[in-house]
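REQUEST FORM: STRUCTURE PREDICTION
Request ID: SP-0412
Submitted by: Lab K.M.
Chain count: 1
Length (residues): 846
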Amino acid sequence: AVEHRSPVALMHWGREVFTDGELAGALAATSIGFDVSVFEIFAPLSWGGRILVTENLLALPGLPAAGEVTMVCGAPTAVAELVRIGKFPSWVRTINLGGEAVPPALVEALAAAAPGARILDVYGPTEDTVYSAFSRLEPGRPVLIGVPVTGTRVHLLDARGELVPAGVPGEMFLAGEGLSRGYLGRPGLTAERFVPDPFGREPGARLYRTGDLARRLPDGTLDYLGRIDHQVKVRGFRVELGEIEAALVRHPRLREAVVAARDDGDRGQRLVAYVVPADVAAAELRGFLRDRLPEYMVPSAFVGLDALPLSATGKVDRRALPDPSGPGEAASAGAFRTPVEEMLGGLAAEVLGVDRVGPDDDFFALGGHSLLATRLLARVSRLFGVDLPVSSVFLDPTVGALAKRIAEASGGPAAPPVRPAERSADGALPLSFAQRRLWLLDRLAPGSPAYHLPGAVRLSGPLDLAALEAALGGVVSRHEALRTVFRAQGDEPMQVPAEARAVALPRVDLAALPAAAAGAEAGRLARAVAVAPFDLARGPLWRAIAIRIAADEHLLAITLHHIVADGWSMEILVAELAALYEASAAGRPSPLSALPVQYADWAVWQRDWLRGGRLAAEVDWWRERLAGSPPLELPVDRPLPASRSGRGGTRTAVLPEATSAALERLARREGATPFMVLLAAFQAQLAYYSFSHSSGAPAVAVGSPVANRGRAEAEGLIGFFVNMLVLRTPVGGDPEFLELLARVREVCLGAYAHQDVPFERLVEELRPERQRGRNPLFQVVFQLEQPIALERLGAAAAEVRRLETGTAKFDLTLSVVREREGFAAVLEYDADLFDPATADRMLGHW
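STATUS: Completed
RESULT:
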């Protein structure tokens, strides 16, 4: 309960401290439910200035009158974010920092961002009307609370209520014109915090005990030392930890709970709850508290314990509480469905200070809160050019849901849902655009293994082969694509699915051979499975074999034709195989839900959606970007043959973990993805080759596959969804690497926004000049692949292995996957053009 006289006294202090020029254009960016707004609004208006209103501090760069802002008040974390993204206005004359401790590094950064500006630390609890003390901050000097504002008295007292000498820590007690009446309707709390003032001259004078620890320096300035009780300040809000603990223990399954505040670096304080017993889910507790407490009082992390640590006296030993494993719950390992999701996940990871945020992770479950949500949306605005309200993060707190909001806000008509297509008597349906291209390529080179997708799984431990065979049959039964063949009907090929039936898993037992011989023979058999030809008209277009190497050692080799699957499909196959294997081995029914549509339904949907004016507009965009794109000239070992053999080879390398982690940090810092950073390095390398080998090209075009699974109906389907994008990056002007990365990011974002055009249709529409032996539009491919996650198959440990087919589809294909030890790279090269030593040299350059 604050009397008018208190803010009036504050206004007079403002008149003393701030000039007319500083008060001329004060930014009003604080919620009117927060005490700082009283100063922001009334100090300028009381003394002839004006206020410029904006939703929050991070919206300042987009304010039409931003150039007229002379004074900014804000929490250090929010101000630091403006500085970090390079958006803090250099013309601001005064910066008031309050609500939390000011990092010295921020003072130095602000001095550089706004030269000549006065930077003030303003300290004060709401109980003493906004500000109680202030100091001017300068780079290289200690950050202090400073001196009391006019009309305020500060006493430092010991536990007996006596004044402490200079230099000795004491609790801060406040008195004077800013003191409020107390807490409305809470006489008990008022009596506890507003105590009699033994130093006051007026009868009934009181002191407010802040709970803050400080010391007075010889020159009289105050130095803040921290809290003496369990009341903390989180994002500018004063929080009583006991109030959260009391709410937690009302949960019917909890016996004990302790809440602590942890320092989270430049993100300020965060709340961590320690609960007993340990088996109560964090999501359940978070929802329980959200029904009872404000959002800022809900802990960002929950740590389950079997018992709370106790001191020798039987009290909770707060110093022995373990550090949580991360800012919140562990991130999921789900794969990103779209490049926008991946970029948004990178932004969220940077804001939250975690290694990874998956597409289905809850922003708040990983430690997010309203201030961090504002930071996230500031980055979204800068990167995607889309302004979303903070409420959008609360309504859609996952990366996947927020990515859809960004896509919707970017404009463009919404695509209709994928529905089961009407079929003829034999179930035949037209091919997707990508399938049709592979069908034509197979007609030109029947049985070529160039478009095979081989893989192997090494299984160590007991294996139930009957259950494995049943699980494989279950996957084939679920996914129509694995039962589909391709037959010409007139001039057009059609895909025709077969009925589901039991499958047989061939088995070979090599356990009687010596270990080395058995391993070598297993490898030979797996490679034979990888390269054996498929007949698209007869099928099946997958094959598998189980090879027993020793008593509890097996190798499962699987190969699919690309016309019915892609890399994402292999992940689905492995995940479903593991789920169905466990169910079959235990005699349980399938745990997988039925698929609403099949791949052939999506192929029909694609043809209906991409036609007419919509297709024409997309093709026009690509035509403008790819106009005048000469082929990339590379330093080859042999002249380009008129007809290629398709032979290829591979070379491998691994970037060290330290380098890989640094590249990921660089990507987050620059608002990019690891893919963009690695691609920029590759295109820089190719540009160097081009300029060294010839006069050079103004841009470097590289092909890159995208999952093309933006539709929810496509996420769980096995099929050939992947689309090839042409990423043509300008390289003129000898750019520094960060400038090149910015160009790559712009190119990628544009391509992602127009990725629906099938590459095959793009070639048909653009009609590039064809040269024998050359692929149209690009000759080099770069891809960042997702590792296939499979650690166990039932009781057997699993290790996924790569199989080579000895072919090459392009001049060069650089494939990178993030492994635990770093980014692992495989360079596939056309053996008609390059020698192995040249490929080694190229991979080394990258």
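NOTES: The chain has a mean pLDDT of 88.
Reviewed by: T.R.
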